[in-house]
Design brief:
single chain; alpha/beta; three-stranded parallel sheet; 10 helices; 7 strands; 47% helix; globular
């Protein structure tokens, strides 16, 4: 009898503990990685997009509606990266706690200086974002801004955990500060080096480390490359001595390899989402991978 009572009590305690955690849904793995660092054991994180999935075009499963319906909070990028799939899910979820303007609707880019904010909007320029380039999390300085903002947002939702959230954010940003000095020194010899990317998703990373990334395999964001455009890319790479091409896991690596063969370039597999490349399952591990992989490729060239 005593054993049954102890088991029942344990189950109730576990249920109470689980209930006490904030139930956080996050749109992308990069923001989810930082949310885990800040929330620690006080939050339950559910990530909608997979690390190897194009965050512009996520497969919006019906199960996502259920997850959003039960969420205490939603973290999204805040720069329309998810505009193609998130709004319909939110409509279906019917969760007042995560509607726009509520404490449970958290925008990751709060306080971030957005790059490439267009002065005019036209479809002729491809898939551009009116609030600026949404791929800001890959810059470690922006990651620190995100962490501080998430700590404040979690504290508003769970005042009892405020001290823990802010301590976790400080621990994360202290670790980033230490690594940032190492990363900056690693890429310093290659300042100004040209790196070709498939999609224009790396301006924040390039600006942080002094790289030049203004040659793209896509003629315009979201527009597949044509043979004529690739021919112009090859000519420009030869003229400007660009010998490294980076490719995210959801983009066409064969196209990059074709261009590389014509330019004596090296193709480097990259990702902006932790888990997008093997062995880089946290934010810091991913940044480590990116810096070391690029430094090695640029060194060879």
């Amino acid at each position: 009898m005593k054993t049954k009572f102890a088991l029942l009590l344990g189950a109730l305690l576990l249920a109470t503990t689980a209930h006490a955690r904030l139930n956080i849904v996050v749109t992308t793995p990069d923001l989810a990685s930082i949310a885990k660092e800040v929330g620690g054991d006080k939050v339950e994180i559910t990530t909608l997009a997979r690390p190897t999935e194009d965050p512009h075009f996520v497969d919006a499963k019906p199960s996502f509606i259920v997850k959003l319906n039960r969420a205490d909070a939603l973290i999204e990028g805040g720069a329309d990266l998810e505009i193609g799939w998130l709004p319909a899910l939110l409509t279906g979820a019917r969760n007042a706690k995560i509607q726009s303007g509520q404490p449970g609707r958290i925008l990751g880019n709060a306080g971030v200086v957005m790059l490439e904010v267009p002065t005019t909007l036209t479809r002729a320029e491809g898939d551009i974002h009116p609030l600026g380039n949404p791929h800001y999390v890959i810059d470690p300085v922006n990651a620190k801004i995100v962490a501080a903002h998430l700590a404040d947002a979690f504290a508003k939702l769970d005042s009892a955990g405020a001290e823990a959230y802010r301590a976790n954010a400080k621990k994360f940003t202290d670790a980033l500060d230490a690594k940032l000095a190492e990363w900056t020194a690693k890429l310093a010899p290659f300042k100004g080096a040209k790196v070709v990317s498939y999609h224009n998703s790396w301006p924040y990373f390039a600006a942080r480390y002094g790289l030049t990334m203004n040659i793209f395999l896509e003629p315009k964001p979201g527009i597949p490359p044509s043979p004529a455009h690739l021919a112009s890319v090859i000519a420009r790479m030869k003229e400007e001595n660009a010998r490294v091409i980076i490719v995210d896991p959801y983009l066409n690596r064969k196209t990059a390899q074709t261009v590389a063969r014509s330019t004596d370039a090296t193709v480097v597999d990259v990702a902006q989402m932790p888990g997008g490349v093997k062995g880089a399952d946290s934010y810091i591990a991913l940044e480590d991978y990116l810096v070391n992989s690029l430094a090695a490729a640029l060194e060879k060239k």
